[in-house]
Amino acid sequence: MKVRVTISLKNGVLDPQGRAIHHAIEGLGIHGVQDVRAGKLIELEVDDSVSDADLETMCKQLLANMVIENYRIERVPVQDSVQETV
Amino acid sequence: MAAFRSAVITFPGSNCDRDMAVAIEQICGGEVLRVWHGDAALPDKLDFIALPGGFSYGDYLRSGAMAARSPVMQAVVEAANRGMPVLGVCNGFQVLTEAGLLPGALLRNAGMNFVCREIALTVETSQSLFTAGYSQGQQITIPVAHHDGNYFADAATLDRIEGEGRVAFRYAEEVNGSARQIAGVLNSAGNVLGMMPHPERMIEAAQGGSDGRALFQSVIEGLVAA
User: What are the boundaries of each domain within chain B?
Assistant: First the structure.
């Protein structure tokens, strides 16, 4: 089973990386982008024995820093994983 | 007190561990033990632990995140909770926040650049083991060298640590976008200090100044008096 964890910065937390990307997008001559926030995507291949509670523990204790980040856990069908769609 | 015994923890990617050990050895004296991140236990009868600067585990995931979960850090957290004095400088500060020993987090510098220069700091409290040798409001010069030094905590946390006198140092100039210019923070018991500037790099005239000495002197004098 593939699990996709998306980590994003909480609202109100400054994102200098997002700001730099935004600036670079404008450099492409594309305007109208209102805001850019950069995050992380972590894909895990897990056994069925890994429970939802285990995933929550991983996110809270390691993958995300709850002071500054939010996380979202999705269990994704294998054919929908990043590798499969590239 | 028996001979002063301290430990400097080295993680893969630490690069200020030797400087830290030299500073402690020269100023505090005694025995400075070098401890590897994979050690499950700390040496016996320690008086002081220092977490050095660097880029532990290549800053993978977040600065300090992997180091905070290394075997030795569980022992450091237990020791800190028992009252052991712990100093974390730069990456050491990031590790302490990631390990939950200090509030807040260190984000990418607001200006996006790595900042490496001498900066002016204001000593915010002299009522701590680490800052007793300074006077409150004293301005000192200490170098910084970091990419992720932008201190962040929510407003309630900032109000609380300010109210409890737990801001040890504040930048006297704009450096990295830190909330309320906070450069160093104490835990509620006062035995853990994390700071982005490097006091161990400012201990003798050959380094351009010695404003960092008083921090190490405060620790040894405080512990001898205790």
Answer: 5-225
Complex confidence, ipTM: 0.84
Is residue A20 classed as helix, strand or coil in its secondary structure?
helix
Arithmetic mean of pLDDT, A63-76: 96
> Can you give the C-alpha Rg of chain B in angstroms?
16
Interface contacts (A, B; CB < 8 Å)? 38
What topology is assigned to A2-85 in CATH?
Answer: Mth169; Chain: A , (3.30.1280)
Which residues fall within 8 angstroms of residue A75, CB to CB, at 6 or more apart?
A1, A2, A3, A4
Correct CATH for B5-225 of 2.50.20.10, 3.40.50.300, 3.40.50.880, 3.30.830.10:
3.40.50.880
Sorted by where each begins, the domain ranges of chain A are 2-85
Predicted confidence at residue A86, as pLDDT, reads 46
Of the candidates B54, B96, B53, B94, the residue with the CA atom closest to the CA atom of residue B73: B96
Q: How confident is the model at residue B150 (pLDDT cuts 50, 70, 90)?
A: very high
Q: Test B108 with A20 for CB contact under 8 angstroms.
A: no
Chain B, nearest residue to A68 by Cα:
B105
pLDDT tens digits for range B160-177? 999 999 999 999 999 999
**Residue B139 and residue B136: Cα distance in Å, rounded?**
9
Cα–Cα distance measured from residue B63 to residue B200, given in angstroms and rounded to the nearest whole number: 20
Torsion of CA B6, B11, B16, B18, to 10 degrees: 50
E-state strands within B3-138: 5-10, 31-36, 48-51, 86-89, 105-107, 115-123
CA distance B58 to B40: 21
Mean pLDDT of B31-45: 95
Q: How far is A67 from chain B (nearest CA, A)?
A: 6
